[in-house]
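Put briefly, the fold is written as integer tokens. One such record reads:
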Amino acid sequence: MPAIELGPKPLQAVRATSAVDARKVQQSPVGSARAAEVGNPGSGVVRSQDLDPGQPPVDAERVQQIRKAIEDGTYPIVPAKVADAMIAAGLLLRSGK
């Protein structure tokens, strides 16, 4: 059974994004056609694929390893880390940040 690494893995960028000027999208013929496709041509709201974040970066292999370790009862749980996370979450909820 492979060892489970503790701690988060760094996130990798899925794809680059760029700024979109909503005024240009609404004025373009493509924007008007897209609004008609959505079924709400008079709303001025246009859905754009440029704003679609895509799928979240999930390491399916890592998720499977963790699930297997939990099922086997070998997932390492460190009570001090759990307590620290609970205290931090409580502080964040109280501070409103």
In short: The chain has two domains: 20-54, 55-97. The two ends are 40 Å apart (CA to CA). The chain has four helices and no strands.
